[in-house]
Amino acid sequence: MVYPASIKYQYPSDIGIVLCGHGSRDSQAVKEFINVVEKIKARIPDIPVVFGFLEFNRPIISEALDQLRNMGIRRIIALPAMLFAAGHTKNDIPAVLNKYSAESGITIQYGRELGLNSLMIGAAGARLRETIDSNPIFPLSQTLLVVAGRGSSDPDANSNVCKITRMLVEGFGFGWGETVFSGVTFPLVDPGLRHALKLGFKRVILLPYFLFSGVLVSRVRVHSLRVSNDNPDVEFLNASYLSDQDLVIDTFMERIQEVLSGENFMNCALCKYRSNLLGFESEVGYEQKSHHDHVEGCLDIQSNFGDEGKNKKKNFSENKTHEHSHEHFPYPHAQHPLGPVTLRSLN
Fold first, then answer.
1. Is position 260 within any domain?
2. CB atoms within 10 A of CB 1
3. Does 204 fall in a domain?
4. What domain range includes position 192?
5. Most buried residue, 31, 80, 214, 343, by CB count within 10 Å?
């Protein structure tokens, strides 16, 4: 297969690109995100590429857009640095972009999330291969693969993690595959792993299907370690998250090209805001608005911004109750015995 890295695209000279990240309280996650941005810049050195965050860090997205505007850019491609299309991709980022475009007159074209494609499956497979090759004793047919996703109140996003799991199981020939989540939905990592171990497998590979490190990846590791300690007869292997794997960068490049070629089609078939999904019917037509405007840039990573960061830095303790107390529809399964209610007793 010819991947986008080997294709020389022609880019208009009047565009700029902004990568929209979520932001993190973990400085390592922020550094990893910036590293991905730098790799994208290296692919298109003649096109200005900037980045902004929804919350926790600066620059916020509107400040990143200001950078491009101040360069004289009047056409901007905005890409969500998100694996799947859930609330941040469908509501929070578009609301920021729409507001900025309306107030500035700048044309902003919104690209797709990374999503599901052969490139992203290949990136996850590469992380698994690293782990398998360094631990080659067990045959894969006797190995349980567990993929840990972020977890969302959007069932379409959650189902995509399950599809990733199945594609990897069939691609490698694992004995079985299960999907767990770090929060919001079910099954969570701890109860999900304990149920999966009842299948009798003596080797488990845990793949955190995340772009970057951070609080949620740490949560996955901590909860899986608890299960591992309680099951000393089972070998647990931890694969790495995706980060700057080459095929991830290729996917970002593909998303840019989709916008330029007019092939930027969002998958709305199972969007809970557009179709009557079982159990989520009340959310059809929900207003598209951001739930992050009150915490934009509330925690600066000073090391990234020097004296400017020191001057902008705010006390995150004032926002410590933020842990997603936004005005979302209540998740219908918040009290599920294998889900969010369980998480409170495990933290």
1. no
2. 6
3. yes
4. 118-238
5. 80
